[in-house]
């Protein structure tokens, strides 16, 4: 069987925009063909998320309730300690998660006790047989290496939006610094989790432009979270009009076509989506969701609702696809 796609890293914005704007049925058909070929079996990865260090962040990201520049209800909290974090990871595994993602509301990682605790958390999560992901801002080469040695599976660092729209969203960190962080993660041999957010007043071209930056990273990021803005009261983006569900479907489908082998994670914003809209996203090629009742500071669908979602879509969680360790005679 020949591939119904070519793996490319040279997409132009115009080409991507044409995919994004294609008639919906054509877009879905193309995304489905790529998805079924690149990821046979239609398994969905369940990633649980925990905020280890919440609030009080010095960056001015306009979408984020954790920024000290914004006046949301989220206030700076002391960091969680290693044991309670590992207890949460154990509970996530019991509930069916196969990846555990930990977040720190930091501009960058600094050496010292909190970083040592982060390394212990990564080691502990890996010992449970879960994938471990960290998101904690910028890092140095030496810190990336230490995370790799601790067994970190993935580091999440999002582009958030297009290079052109970026200055309207964040002023305290440059786009270039984001790209450098991604290179450091790659150099250390840790997989990349990198995506963005839609619904922040960007144009259709901005969406294509952000996808172009992602799809020209070689190799493509191993996982690509597509977030819809959660418009939190007290942030400058609190009054943004919610994203139309079909726009999210289009983003997912286009990401799938551009990055056939990446995990495309349907991320923040699922609470605002009907089950049918989420099923369309799965059909469009999403093969991962955040699983568990909270994201970092905002809500996410209940575990039971997500079990019902997967059952209604007729798809299985990726851990259910693991080969049986005992034979059935
Ligand atoms: N401080 C680190 C950083 O910015 O890289 C890690 C945590 S930060 C909260 C992780 C990502 O969450 C952000 O890059 C952004 O893409 C996403 N995010 C934060 N607030 C969001 C919101 N209100 N809606 C959608 N996504 C959001
Ligand atoms: C990602 O792309 N989305 C997640 C995870 N990576 C870290 C975070 C979403 C945060 C939504 C707002 C909140 O809960 O604070
Ligand atoms: Fe801080 Fe990350 Fe929130 Fe930006 S997105 S304010 S860096 S926690």
Draw up the topology in text.
Blueprint: H1 13-20, H2 24-38, E1 43-53, H3 82-95, E2 99-104, H4 113-127, E3 131-135, H5 141-149, E4 154-156, H6 175-187, E5 191-193, E6 196-198, H7 204-215, E7 223-228, H8 245-258, E8 263-266, H9 275-283, E9 288-290, H10 303-313, E10 316-317
Helix pairs in contact: 1-7, 2-8, 3-4, 8-9, 9-10
Overview of this structure, please?
The structure is a single chain. The chain has 329 residues and is an alpha/beta fold. The chain has one domain: Alpha-Beta Barrel (TIM Barrel), CATH 3.20.20.70. 36% of the residues lie in helices and 14% in strands. Strands 1, 2, 3, 4, 5, 6, 7, 8, 9 and 10 form a 10-stranded parallel beta sheet that branches. β7, α8 and β8 (263-266) form a beta-alpha-beta unit. 6-(5-methyl-2-OXO-imidazolidin-4-yl)-hexanoic acid binds at residues 49, 65, 101, 103, 135, 156, 158, 195, 225, 227, 230, 267-268, 295-298.
């Amino acid at each position: 069987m020949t591939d119904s796609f070519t793996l490319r890293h040279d997409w132009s914005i115009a080409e991507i925009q044409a995919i994004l704007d294609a008639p919906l049925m054509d877009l879905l058909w193309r995304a489905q063909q790529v998805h079924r070929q690149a990821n046979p079996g239609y398994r969905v990865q369940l990633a649980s998320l925990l905020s280890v260090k919440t609030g009080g962040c010095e960056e001015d990201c306009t979408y984020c309730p954790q920024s000290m520049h914004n006046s949301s209800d989220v206030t700076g909290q002391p960091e969680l300690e290693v044991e309670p974090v590992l207890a949460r990871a154990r509970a996530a595994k019991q509930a069916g998660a196969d990846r555990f993602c930990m977040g720190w509301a930091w501009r960058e990682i600094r050496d010292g006790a909190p970083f040592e605790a982060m390394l212990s958390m990564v080691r502990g999560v890996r010992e449970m047989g879960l994938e471990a992901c960290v998101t904690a801002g910028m890092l140095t080469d030496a810190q990336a290496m230490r995370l790799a040695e601790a067994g970190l599976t993935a580091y999440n660092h999002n582009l958030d939006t297009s290079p052109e729209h970026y200055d309207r969203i964040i002023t305290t960190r440059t786009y270039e610094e984001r790209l450098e962080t991604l290179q450091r993660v790659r150099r250390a041999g840790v997989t990349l989790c990198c995506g963005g957010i839609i619904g922040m007043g960007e144009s259709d071209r901005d969406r294509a432009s952000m996808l172009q930056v992602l799809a020209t990273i070689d190799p493509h990021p191993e996982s690509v979270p597509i977030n819809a803005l959660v418009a939190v009261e007290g942030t400058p983006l609190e009054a943004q009009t919610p994203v139309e569900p079909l726009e999210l479907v289009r983003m997912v489908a286009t990401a799938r076509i551009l990055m056939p082998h990446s995990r495309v994670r349907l991320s923040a914003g699922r609470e605002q989506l009907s089950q049918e809209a989420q099923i369309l996203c799965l059909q469009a090629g999403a093969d991962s969701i955040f699983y568990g009742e909270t994201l970092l500071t905002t809500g996410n669908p209940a575990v039971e609702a997500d079990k019902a979602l997967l059952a209604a879509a007729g798809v299985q969680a990726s851990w259910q696809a693991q080969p049986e360790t005992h034979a059935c005679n």
